[in-house]
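User: Can you help me understand a structure? I only have the sequence.
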Amino acid sequence: MCVIKIAENSDLKSVQPPPVMETCEWVTNIGWPDDKPLLNVSQAAPTDPPPDSLLRELANAVLTDQEAHAYGPVLGMPDLREEIAGRWSSEYGAKISPGQVAVTSGCNQAFCAAALSLCKAGDALIVPVPWYFNHGMWLRMTGVEARPLPSSDDMVPDPDRAMALLDRRVKGIVLVTPNNPTGTEYPPDVVDEFFELARSSGIALIVDETYRDFDSREFPPHGIFSRTAWDETFIHVYSFSKAYRLTGHRVGALISSPLRISQIEKFLDTVTICPNQLAQRSALFGLRNLEDWKAAERQKILGRRAAVTEGFLALEGWKLKGCGAYFAYAEHPFESPSQEISKRLLREQAILTIPGSVFVPESSGSDHRGDRHIRFAFANIGQSGISELFHRLRGL
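Assistant: Let's start by predicting it. Here is the structure, written out as tokens:
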């Protein structure tokens, strides 16, 4: 019998399975007693639906807006691009034009577009570790090296250490602030230093600000948009998913130079043709009508952050390494690696977490120590859930 072997993309095959989906499979066929239901702190996504006013706007668009069901501009609705440009200009004290804005199908697509506009197979991007695993996955499957930049003990990357990693293959540096997985809010002067390093080296700086709406500091979180010719170096990516609970609708944004936007348009047209029309209308409604609602949501998250910080300070043996936005990143006190500890937390205490090992390269070494850390996404569990979380952690 002749067996025909179909060709495979070795770069894609080498990528790990999606970690969130893999950890969710751990709960299959497992039951817990009524007095200890599953406490899910694994996924960083709102579980509640959007506010009622947005739902009504969305329903009205479905029923009455014929254009909401047809193809739209590849780079997004002109009204939404203009609103983003105006709002960001006001918030960052800058001058941003609609021609510097692209609307994308979520922030993940914005990052993929940004990376593709910079790198071909064999090139490299510097990415601080621990990193957001989808960034590492995209770079690996496209043949781009994700060059790890170890963070300091306070989970903030060092521009001087990044400088030592530069060579002719490096096309850019990636920052996520507030960070996923650590929650760390990078100081404005550090972000500005990375911008100067990138500009002086002739490379790009990508800053993912998915969680900026839950930053504990007042705006702006950095001063890059006010720099002269910022768009020659800087690529900003953002998500509306967390701000307005639109995770399933997939809408994000990318801001950079008009020239880069024109190149990114090729990618967006090839992959999705246009962003989701209903999602764009939802984002536009949110920007125009939900600022007070969003501010109240931010205060809820900040309250949960304070409770989580207090909880870890009182938890013997654990060390909180970073906390902010949706996340706490903690060093556990056990001898076993983080994946085994995450499975124990599920099996013994009905807590679903993500082990730190998925946020580091496979050849991490002692600099990264993903095996020593656990990520807790606390945005959905509320104050009572946080109290229960620490009660169970004390019982491990």
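Now, to help you interpret it: The mean pLDDT is 93. The radius of gyration is 21 Å. Let me know which part you'd like to focus on.
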